[in-house]
Amino acid sequence: MRTRLSLSVRGKRLLRELKRLRDERRMSPEDVAGQLGWHKTKLYRIERGESRLILDDLDELLELYGVRSPERESLFKLGKDAWKRGWWLAYRDLYQGESFFVMENDAARIGIYSPSQLPGLFQTEDYARIVIRTMVPEATTEEVERQVTARMERQGILARKEPPQVFAVLDEIALRRGVQPETVQKDQLEQLVELAKRPNITIRIIPLDAGLYMGQWGQFTLFEFPDAEDTPVAYQEGLFGDVYVEDPGDLARYRVSAAHTSDAALNPTESQALIEKLAEESYG
Questions:
Q1: Mean pLDDT score of the chain, rounded to an integer?
Q2: Boundaries of each HTH cro/C1-type domain copy (predicted)?
Q3: Same fold, 9-82 and 87-281
Q4: To which CATH superfamily is domain 9-82 assigned?
Q5: Alpha-carbon distance 89 to 97, whole Å?
Q6: Residue in 2, 1, 7 with CA at minimum distance from that of residue 244
Q7: Strand extents, DSSP E, 139-268
């Protein structure tokens, strides 16, 4: 079975545009292949994201479709950016695939709903090291350190000139669950305090006395992208594999869970006060 390439959002947009151009001209993939001298399945693989589109092939397609500037220049720019090598490729042996990193890198808005642990985007290096050692006990010291480095690299999106909007709903229990040494817990809480002050980051805490809420089914992340045509994606990590959801009906359930989870949380000001209180308590 062929596997889809981990396309960036720009890559997916380019493939949509190429299919639209072909459909408008009422050409089948076989028609295109015949006129360009390609194998009859080549365009099928390209449009499905199963084969990399090189710029020479893109040039031939745009010429056949009669595309002129400025649209031609715009599509070429998408083509140049579509399969750029990401920093995460150096760590691909540690993970099941690139899709999560691609989506996190391209997202305009990231919604994190985490009842049991602090998200990787917010973790300090020392805290991340403890988490990874705990969750992946079979990992060697080298593998743990590489995963820590990869997690710190991920946080680079928060330092961009135009960073994504991050909205996180966390459970108070995740903040209170202590790690050793205590200085690691203190530093982690202080980092959350500082992150919550950034204009692009909203952190809301569900207090212990909130009772049960829908989001306790499990941690998940919602990715939304700059272009309205790019379908949002829900991501849920599990012990036996990762799940990516794009179906509108299934996405609706995640949105309902996100809404109910948010309703159970303190507002951002109250949440920041609680984080600061816990950080102060950690000194004792």
A1: 88
A2: 18-72
A3: no
A4: lambda repressor-like DNA-binding domains (1.10.260.40)
A5: 9
A6: 7
A7: 165-171, 201-206, 220-224, 233-238, 241-245
Pick the CATH number of 87-281 from 2.60.40, 3.30.870, 1.10.10, 1.25.40: 3.30.870
Q: Which among 4, 22, 1 has a CA at the least distance from the CA of 12?
A: 4
Please write the tens of the pLDDT for every residue from 97-106.
Answer: 677 888 898 8
**Residue 244 pLDDT more than 90?**
no
Domain limits, the chain: 9-82, 87-281
Residue 18's SS3 state is helix
* DSSP H or E run through 183: helix 182-196
Q: What is the pLDDT of residue 103?
A: 87
- Residue 119 carries which DSSP code? -
Residue appearing with tokens 């990516």: 244
